[in-house]
Amino acid sequence: MACLPYGAFVQFSLRGRGRHRLILFAWVADDQPVGERTMHRCFAVLLYLALGLPAQAAIKGCISDVLLPPFGFFEQGSVKQEVVGLGVDVLQAILRREGQPPAEISVLPWRRCLRLVEAGALDIVLNVPTAQINPKPYFITEPYYAVHSIYFYSSKLHPTGIRLGNLEDLKRYQVCGLFGYSFEGYGIDSNTVDTGSKDYASLIRKLHAGRCDLFIDKREIVAGMYLLDPKLQAQIIDTVLVSQPLPEDSPMQFHFAVGRRSPGGEALRKQLDVGIIEMTQRGEIAKMMARYLR
């Protein structure tokens, strides 16, 4: 057996399911007889092996099945159908730095995802928008990215443009949007919005046909949709279709939500907070996003 050199100070670091660490130390003194040194060296190795303690279990998380590229989506052409995206990248990078195994991420209906993390069956929810869930059952992390609202209109129908001075001005126009979207955050009753479109191509056709004046979305999410539909880019980057920043916009931020019933949940939240702050300061998250939006 190849054992430890004399004069060695050895630290074995093992982590259990709850992210708790067990550390074993072994010291082999220089002045021990050769046989005794060998015995101690081998004993330290055998102790490590004989304990049979499990390696740290992977954190288990979930993400909404209403996928939002570039934050979470299935990569086109991928045989494995594994979810990828900025939220996944940030989480895995922070875990990797601590020598932890990659998180296992399931794609689930949003409400089910929240319930399972709340119950402690899963550890973490990815891509949680600010203030859009009840925070009581979760430890909410620092935001890792912010998205910004823009509005689109057809210059064919509005050749002089649509200029919005504030959100109240939206009420002067017929707004349309994607199916399932809510617009109360923009000061609009969602019941007054035409949300019959299930994809951007349909929404753009509706604009050019004059069935509505404008639609609102998030700049980064629209750009991310190119990853799923390359043809969409030609429709969005069009001299007839014009986009402008939405006034009085409060950027929506994305967080992780760690379940309070998850073993070591508060420690995981603190670990993620430190990682998010450090990665943001070093510009690493911006570089990750640039790879998706190039």
Please provide a brief summary of the model.
With 294 residues, this protein is an alpha/beta fold.
> Tell me about the biggest sheet?
6 strands, mixed
Identify the overall geometry. Answer: elongated
Q: How many distinct domains? A: 3
Distance between the termini: 52 Å
Unreliable sequence segments: 1-54
CATH architecture label of the largest domain? 3-Layer(aba) Sandwich
Q: Looking at CATH, which topology of the largest domain would you report?
A: D-Maltodextrin-Binding Protein, domain 2
Number of helices: 8
Written account of the structure:
It contains eight helices and 15 strands. It is elongated and about 60 Å long. A hairpin with an 8-residue loop joins strand 4 and strand 5 (83-84). Helix content is 30%, strand content 24%. The strands form four sheets. Strands 3, 6, 7, 8, 9 and 15 form a six-stranded mixed beta sheet that branches. Strands 12-11-13-10-14 form a five-stranded mixed beta sheet. The protein has helices at residues 34-51, 86-97, 110-119, 200-208, 219-224, 230-236, 265-281, 284-293, and strands at residues 9-15, 21-27, 60-64, 73-74, 83-84, 104-108, 124-129, 138-140, 145-147, 149-154, 175-178, 194-197, 214-218, 241-245, 252-259. The protein has three domains: 9-51, no CATH class; 60-146 and 252-293, Periplasmic binding protein-like II (D-Maltodextrin-Binding Protein, domain 2, 3-Layer(aba) Sandwich), CATH 3.40.190; 149-245, D-Maltodextrin-Binding Protein, domain 2 (3-Layer(aba) Sandwich), CATH 3.40.190. It holds the Pfam family SBP_bac_3. Keywords: Signal. InterPro entries: Solute-binding_3/MltF_N.
